[in-house]
Each structure stands twice: as C-alpha cells, then as structure tokens.
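Long-time lurker. I teach an intro course on protein structure, and each term I like to show students one example going from raw sequence to a predicted 3D structure in token notation. This year I'd like something fresh instead of my usual example. Would anyone be willing to generate the tokens for the chain below so I can use it in lecture? Attribution to the forum is fine with me.
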Amino acid sequence: MNEFVEVGAFPSELSESVQSVLPRLVEGQLRPPSEGFNAQVRGESLTIPYRVYYRPERVRNLAQSAREGVIAACLGSRHHDGFLREECLARVLSVEAPWVVPFVVQLVGEYVLPILQLIERAMPKLRETLYAEYVSKNRALFEITGRRTVSYWDVYYRHQYPKLADYPGFRIHSELRRMSKQV
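-- Reply from a regular --
Happy to contribute to a lecture. Here you go:
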C-alpha cells in the first residue's frame, strides 16, 4: 500500500517519479489532502485530491524541475491557495500529457476568475485530441464541472457578466464540449 494518497492521482507509469516528489511536498503540510474526484485517463482510474495543503514554497521550488516539476505543479493546481493554483496551472498548461488534463479541466469549475482567464487564453494552444478524449471518457464529471461553472457565475460573476455566454468558465466548458463531440 502506498504511503501517500496522492500517488493515485497519476497513472501507474509515473509511480516512481510521484513517490520521489511526494515526501518533499508533504513535509510540513498544513493538513492531509481532502477527498478527491475520480477520473479515467487512458484506461486507468485516477483519484485526484480536491484540495492539498502543502507549504507553498515547497510547491514552487519543486515545480521548477522537469518531469517531477510537472507532477508537483499538477498537485499544486489543487492547492487551497488560489494564487498558487494559478501559478501551477501556468506551469502545466503547455504540457501535452493525458495525465495533466484532469487537473486543468477541474479548474474550469472553480470560482477564481484569473484561473479561468488563463485557461481561456491557452485554449487555442491546447492539444485538442487530449482534451476531447478526456471529456468523452469522463462525461459525468464534466457535466458536474459545467453545473459548478454556472453556479459560480450566478453567485459571483452575474453582475460582471450579465449573459452566461460571456462568462469565461462557460465559454471554456462550451468549447471543451464542442471538442469532445468531434471524437
């Protein structure tokens, strides 16, 4: 049995790298990760924490390295600090790996507008086939993300975006839906 629940957030082929990163991330964490969401990636069931509570400086330091940095940044995109989530997202958006996609898509259903704007700016550069495949294999999770998007718009951004169709989260979700219909 793995010592760290976060190992389940990544495909088995990355186990060694993830096991290398986690001890450095979890040392001094404020509390254990919260329960997560399940996603299917290339036939593997992954359980990604909803929130992690690592010390921000540890995430930032580890996110600078190559492959292990992407792992740290993916986990950092689940951090309780929205500013750190945004920094980590910026690090992973250019990574073309199927195991990165659930970390990006999950952020579409969150309430931090700069994160949504960052994703929206990156949409034209994202590898469409990876995102379409993920959405089509995780339809129920994707629909929950869409409902969250509408809820956050209604509570926080309706005044700024009177039309739902103008809200970045809704536009991203709609574009991901369009991509998935082409698979």
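Some talking points for your students: The chain has one domain: 5-180. The mean pLDDT is 94.
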